[in-house]
Automatic annotation (TrEMBL):
The chain crosses the membrane at residues 44-61, 73-94. Residues 115-190 form the NADH-ubiquinone oxidoreductase 21kDa subunit C-terminal fungi domain. Residues 1-12 have a biased composition (Polar residues). Residues 1-20 are annotated as: Disordered. Residues 22-106 form the NADH-ubiquinone oxidoreductase 21kDa subunit N-terminal domain. The keyword Transcription does not apply. PANTHER family: NADH-UBIQUINONE OXIDOREDUCTASE 21KDA SUBUNIT N-TERMINAL DOMAIN-CONTAINING PROTEIN, OXIDOREDUCTASE 21 KDA SUBUNIT, PUTATIVE (AFU_ORTHOLOGUE AFUA_4G04750)-RELATED. It comes from Clohesyomyces aquaticus. This is NADH-ubiquinone oxidoreductase-like protein 21 kDa subunit. It holds the Pfam family NADH-u_ox-rdase.
Length: 191
């Protein structure tokens, strides 16, 4: 038996995987709100197409080979197909947006949005990734359970709803840019 107290025990350190893709990593565990906010209009258009595909196919199949279920039999199936389609469409949009955060897809727009958002927070003195009421340990657990989760989202939808400081990127770049902008603002006002 170990004689260490709970305070002396160390939490396991699991290093983040550093992707070696064509595009830079923005965040390996983006918060749900950021993913939805950064989604591109074409993602939403494609997601709407994915959502509409199920009900459209169901109507087509009913037209080509009628089921003859009667007046009340087809409507519940269409509602279920619509719900499954909406869920699939949203997961499609979420996945495409997350893959841009991971650097798996072209992400120039998201890099600029991320830099602007984080530099503005740094200039105001706010925490970059928000505040949390959870302990550091629980934030780490949440991070380890949800980083890169969107790569498997079609099988197990798992979202990050926790604000934590573990995102797999060096945040010093935001503070350097904030210092440069603040210096430029001071020089501009004094001139």
């Amino acid at each position: 038996m170990s004689s260490q107290t709970q305070d002396q025990q160390q939490t396991p350190y699991i290093p983040d995987k550093i992707p070696s893709g064509e595009y830079p990593l923005i965040d390996n565990d983006p918060h749900f709100k950021r993913v939805v906010r950064y989604a591109r209009p074409e993602d939403w258009a494609l997601g709407a197409g994915v959502a509409a595909a199920g009900p459209a196919l169901m109507l087509y199949w009913e037209k080509m080979s009628p089921s003859f279920v009667g007046k009340g039999g087809f409507a519940p199936i269409m509602r279920l197909t619509g719900a499954v389609g909406l869920t699939g469409g949203f997961l499609f949009v979420y996945s495409r947006s997350c893959h841009r955060f991971y650097g798996a897809r072209e992400n120039r727009r998201e890099i600029e949005m991320d830099m602007r958002e984080m530099v503005d927070k740094a200039k105001r003195g706010e925490p970059l990734y928000g505040t949390s009421t959870m302990t550091d340990y629980m934030q780490g657990v949440a991070h380890r359970n949800s980083r890169y989760a969107a790569t498997f989202i079609g099988t197990l939808p798992w979202f990050n709803f926790v604000n934590h400081p573990y995102h797999g990127v060096d945040t010093a770049k935001y503070f350097r840019q904030a210092e440069l902008e603040l210096e430029q603002e001071r020089n501009g006002k004094s001139s």
